[in-house]
Write a structure and sequence with these properties.
seven-stranded mixed β-sheet; two-stranded antiparallel sheet; 2 helices
């Protein structure tokens, strides 16, 4: 499989920069009506984010707090390799009930991506808060299934 071309899309606030794969900030699209109450397609995006201890979100948080997990996989991978692989698989959405108002995207084999909805009218999207390799306990109710048609296409 050809490696995706990764880069940051410039913005004015560093933590809000979007990472691109092959020139697109949309890493995957959740089709409308996949999740009850969301009738239109919504992209999944990865922001640069920040990491402060166990707190934070986005690429910097995932790299600092979970990067070592990806190195232990066989074959070893990095943050982007893990996200690309997991977004190319199916999974289930669970609404979190405790700490954060967001979504778990649980995938098999072992993997969880936690998303948060960013409301911006027609430009709304899900941002990746964190990702990790083991299915820790999911405390929320299943609210939809993710069937991926996502695949990274080589840049021409």
């Amino acid at each position: 499989m050809q490696q995706p071309v990764l880069q940051i899309k410039e913005d004015t606030i560093e933590q809000n920069l979007f990472w691109e794969i092959n020139g697109s900030i949309d890493l995957a699209i959740i089709p409308g009506n996949t999740i009850k109450g969301i009738p239109h397609d919504l992209p999944i995006r990865l922001q640069n984010g920040y990491a402060k201890g166990r707190n934070g979100f986005g690429y910097l948080h995932i790299l600092r707090n979970h990067g070592q997990e990806f190195n232990r996989l066989r074959p070893p991978t990095d943050v982007f390799g893990f996200l690309v692989k997991k977004l190319g698989q199916g999974g289930s959405f669970h609404h979190q009930t405790d700490k954060r108002k967001g979504l778990y995207l649980a995938m098999l084999p072992s993997g969880v991506i936690i998303l948060d909805y960013v409301a911006k009218g027609r430009d709304s999207f899900f941002t990746i808060i964190t990702a990790y390799t083991t299915n820790r306990s999911i405390d929320g109710k299943e609210i939809g299934r993710y069937i991926s048609t996502f695949q990274v296409k080589p840049k021409k």
